[in-house]
Amino acid sequence: MSIKVIVAGFKGKMGSTAVNMIQGDSDLELAALLDPFATEAEVDGVPVFTDKAALSGFDADVWVDFTMPAVAYENTRFALENGFAPVVGTTGFSESQIAELIDLSAQKKLGGLIAPNFAIGAILLMEFAAKASKYFPDLEIIELHHDKKKDAPSGTAVKTAELIREVRQAKKQGAEDEVETLAGARGAEFDGFRIHSVRLPGLVAHQEVIFGAQGEGLTLRHDSYDRVSFMSGVNLGIKEVVKRDQLVYGLEKLL
Amino acid sequence: MSIKVIVAGFKGKMGSTAVNMIQGDSDLELAALLDPFATEAEVDGVPVFTDKAALSGFDADVWVDFTMPAVAYENTRFALENGFAPVVGTTGFSESQIAELIDLSAQKKLGGLIAPNFAIGAILLMEFAAKASKYFPDLEIIELHHDKKKDAPSGTAVKTAELIREVRQAKKQGAEDEVETLAGARGAEFDGFRIHSVRLPGLVAHQEVIFGAQGEGLTLRHDSYDRVSFMSGVNLGIKEVVKRDQLVYGLEKLL
Amino acid sequence: MSIKVIVAGFKGKMGSTAVNMIQGDSDLELAALLDPFATEAEVDGVPVFTDKAALSGFDADVWVDFTMPAVAYENTRFALENGFAPVVGTTGFSESQIAELIDLSAQKKLGGLIAPNFAIGAILLMEFAAKASKYFPDLEIIELHHDKKKDAPSGTAVKTAELIREVRQAKKQGAEDEVETLAGARGAEFDGFRIHSVRLPGLVAHQEVIFGAQGEGLTLRHDSYDRVSFMSGVNLGIKEVVKRDQLVYGLEKLL
Amino acid sequence: MSIKVIVAGFKGKMGSTAVNMIQGDSDLELAALLDPFATEAEVDGVPVFTDKAALSGFDADVWVDFTMPAVAYENTRFALENGFAPVVGTTGFSESQIAELIDLSAQKKLGGLIAPNFAIGAILLMEFAAKASKYFPDLEIIELHHDKKKDAPSGTAVKTAELIREVRQAKKQGAEDEVETLAGARGAEFDGFRIHSVRLPGLVAHQEVIFGAQGEGLTLRHDSYDRVSFMSGVNLGIKEVVKRDQLVYGLEKLL
Description:
Four copies of one chain form a homotetramer.
Chain A: E1 3-8, H1 13-23, E2 28-34, E3 42-43, E4 46-49, E5 62-65, H2 69-81, E6 85-88, H3 95-108, E7 112-114, H4 120-135, E8 139-145, E9 151-152, H5 155-167, E10 179-180, E11 188-190, E12 193-199, E13 205-213, E14 216-224, H6 231-241, E15 247-249
Parallel strand pairs in A: 1-2, 1-5, 2-4, 5-6, 6-7, 7-15, 8-12
Antiparallel strand pairs in A: 3-4, 8-13, 11-12, 13-14
Helix pairs in contact in A: 2-3, 4-5
């Protein structure tokens, strides 16, 4: 019995990548497609809709949503009310909206997932880094991205650092009388440890967390080359939400 | 209130390293030393014994044991019977002996630890690798050691591979029509994945587990340079066993 | 004064990538395009030809050739006879053909380049690895590719190994009494050192050469993600051949 | 015929490590030892001197010097005047002193070496990095050291950066509108590229130079664990100076 999936926002980059992923997995069945910008009536025999209202009562199990922040909350509410377990990659939810949607999912006894990040590898890296920091409080983060990236450090590095801060025993690292003969050499300071941002052509998105202790070292590295990598997280989300009876926020809750 | 520790086997390499570690931690107090080969009466004011019987009724909390396989079982039993929570790095226990000691510890309501490996970093690596293999079933292990090492792959690599096999969905990796033009290039096969052993002067003991998936990669690496690295595991063991009321086998049970 | 370039084989993957590269470099000017399969009369104002004879007497400096082995020799001879310095990525030349073309180029006082590999990074890696092996005879090669690759080790790894063999003092590495408890763990043997081939989804083409000596290590790594990387080698070739008066075989001769 | 070597400063750390290295190489013969702090008359049958004057006319080929800056110039001059080819690791020479000693060596037709750094691996890394920067002008340096190190970046990183600056086409790297949301994230700026300094317990002395270009990357890494690694440079120096007729400054001149 395959899982029947609706994809909302299927004309966008993430949405169309999700369609390909679903078509390539025999455990999943593409049931319907939704996009206000669609002009075709069907794709490979799958019906296309431009207004979500038409999907009320439709036979499907999961609602995958890669739409726009402006409509994501209404879409997710619609999915839950119509019995579709939502798997949402669209951003822009407020905390109170998330709390409301979790309540609604519990009433409806439907699983669901809202995730700002579907990269399983990146999420595992953060989880492992946080756990290791309990035993190895001396660490540094090196994140490496292409040289068109404007901000440093990366959002992922800051998120990783925050997760580490929650569990690591606070500690100011480095020699007490440390001196930078070239300003910035020691990187950005965050809760007593350091973050370094490398920017080079040819790179995509990479992150290393290096731990050091007397006589040993531990290095965790994630390399992200292509948005296709997010699809293993979407796939996992679809297969997990149908087994659950409440929506969760963050893919890490399903790992 | 510091934890009072007896060190059995304090004349050996691991035992003497443990003594140094305990003396350097203000939360721990070296209470007594035991070694049949000792000739001194005391070390830095700490009494030295050559026969464990003399320690019956002694005031201490933890019994650290780095002795010989021939006496480890008797020592651990003695520790439990005398109210000392054992932290044992000596090897050579049978499965039935471990089961017996766990029973005895439960009767005495004493924590304890028997650990074949005290390297926290190596244990975390194995745990992380096993968890990642659930989501990334394509992986290879590269272990790197000094060039005097006789056996390949390393015991740690085989142990890591076994832990992965327990949780990874079985899969034969690589191209179906793969051909080695030089025999051995693809490494050793284990449950469908590959293990590679590098041997070079200058290296000590290192292990990488590399995971690959569409559009991303995850690499976990542990570097071990010195036996001093085991001491953070011994330290953790001492501080954990005094909070518990049953002996466990394997440091991973305390992480 | 920009360098005027003809691209032969411009309808192929490498040829069309070369066209893009030339159009993006203000020091170069696309002068003419040649391909027997072309149907258009011009591309962006650049004249298109289907027969090389029509280019006799044409005003250009360099002939870039990404055609087929069957015509590469004739094309290169034609280029030299007509005063175009050839930069040839097509394969299939015999040693005597190369010798002949070098002679002809010397008579014509024209530079030229025939290169089986235009990846500057890969060529630098080989050159550095060979030089390092003179001082660090203990080394291992790890090459990593996507899991659709059939042959192991890679052609680049074998080429690297051959260049090392030419200069490294012969030595059988590893412990004398080394034992593989899992066959293949120590990799493929080549001239006393080892080559390991990793195959994983998500990887493209990567190579590491690791050197070890008492108290130190040296690691050289090249990562190749995309054929666009070959273009820096083609660009370098174009700019170097116009300064020279004899054809060379191998991009390394121009570095 | 083995090379007869005098070691000046044999009571110091480097000097005594050099003595061990010479005794372990059958191509070398320890001829005499010099140290003003020595009290023994001989070591393993090798005569010990406390005043260099006593070595005038002594039968030896090479003078290895690991003494103090205050005496290094006089020692090297003495060696040359007495027919010993000097291999000097002591620092503190002025440029004019070096020029003088090179002149003197040429008159005496003696080889010689004054080297601030005997780590062949570190020197090869610098040489390779400089060469690669000609073709890959986008690069960053990451140096990693133990957390007792006071200064950042390391002297080796600055030296490497200077060598790169000499040959690399000047270029300001990174996005034009790059913003640090945490100050220092992008590291120290040097001639348009960046240097990052990592400090962690367990590390010794490590350096990576990472190059990026469209579709590819090149990474060069040196790991230094122990001062014993300098000895391969001293050994090479001894064997090379006896073949030469002029002193050089810098081990790279002999590679």
